[in-house]
Amino acid sequence: MKQMQYAGAVSRLIGELARLPGIGTKTAQRLAFFLLNAPPEVAISLAEAIREAREKVGRCSVCGNLTDVDPCPVCQNETRDKGIICVVQDPRDVVAIEKYRGFKGVYHVLHGALSPLEGVGPQELNIKSLLDRLAGDSVREVILATNPDVEGDATALYLARLIKPLGVKVTRLARGLPVGAHLEYADEVTLGRAIEGRLEIE
User: Fold this and answer.
1) What are the pLDDT digits (tens) for 78-123?
2) How confident is the model at residue 3 (pLDDT cuts 50, 70, 90)?
3) Are 60 and 67 in contact (CB under 8 A)?
4) Where do the domains of the chain lie, and which CATH numbers do they carry?
5) d(CA 83, CA 142)
6) Which pairs count as long-range contacts for 166-170, CB under 8 Å and 24+ apart, including other chains?
């Protein structure tokens, strides 16, 4: 059966939407036709939101989280405990932990995990600025909240070996999280228990 050919502009729109994570060709087609059939202001508003986010959102100069103000709201918040830093792989993990509402420390976003097979080494991660934050005596504990998979565990072990000689307590989230799962998919109760039951890395 011959595949239907769309007009050039429609085909390009479907192709661009299909490049988004988790969006296959059929979903991209549905999204494209929704946008084409919706009132013009719907598509214009979406395009404006994407443009504004790309122009205004960047990395926090302190923690590396995505933000449209620098430093980010968490780093600016004087009620947060700056002596406890929770290290996560992605900005989405910050959102997941914030849903728990029980963590009162601050964050550091690595923007990835060590993966030699994919060419991701320490230089590709936001590690140097983390070590800079530990240079003073204000940080008491670093929670390594990387994902409980091979890459996340390797990253946590690497960071622990760098941090422990500095005299800072290093802990890892308790194994209430399923192995191989990502933090963004964990429910608040499971994630909360993992934070509360974190273990010091020897």
Assistant:
1) 999 999 999 999 999 999 999 888 899 999 999 999 998 899 999 9
2) very low
3) yes
4) 8-56 (1.10.8.420), 59-200 (3.40.1360.10)
5) 8
6) 166/134, 168/134, 168/139, 168/140, 168/141, 168/142, 169/140, 169/141, 169/142, 169/200, 170/141, 170/142, 170/144, 170/200, 170/201
Query: What is the per-residue pLDDT across 170-196, written as a single tens digit (0 to 9) for each?
Result: 999 876 666 666 778 777 777 877 787
Please give the Cα distance from 177 to 90 (Å, whole number): 17
Distance separating alpha carbons of residues 202 and 144, to the nearest angstrom: 13
Instruction: Check the CA dihedral 49-50-52-58 and report its sign.
Output: positive
Q: Describe the crossing of helices 188-196 and 91-100 by its angle, rounded to 10 degrees.
A: 90
Instruction: Look up residue 104 and give its amino acid.
Output: K
End-to-end CA distance of the chain: 62
Task: Classify strands 141-144 and 169-172 as parallel, antiparallel or unpaired.
Answer: parallel
Q: Which of 95, 124, 96 is nearest to 110 (CA)?
A: 124
CB 36 within 8 A of CB 44: no
pLDDT for res 7:
73
Do the beta carbons of residue 195 and residue 103 sit within 8 Å?
A: yes
* Alpha-carbon gap, residue 150 to 164, rounded angstroms: 21
CA–CA gap between residue 87 and residue 104 (Å, rounded):
14
CA distance 119 to 75: 31
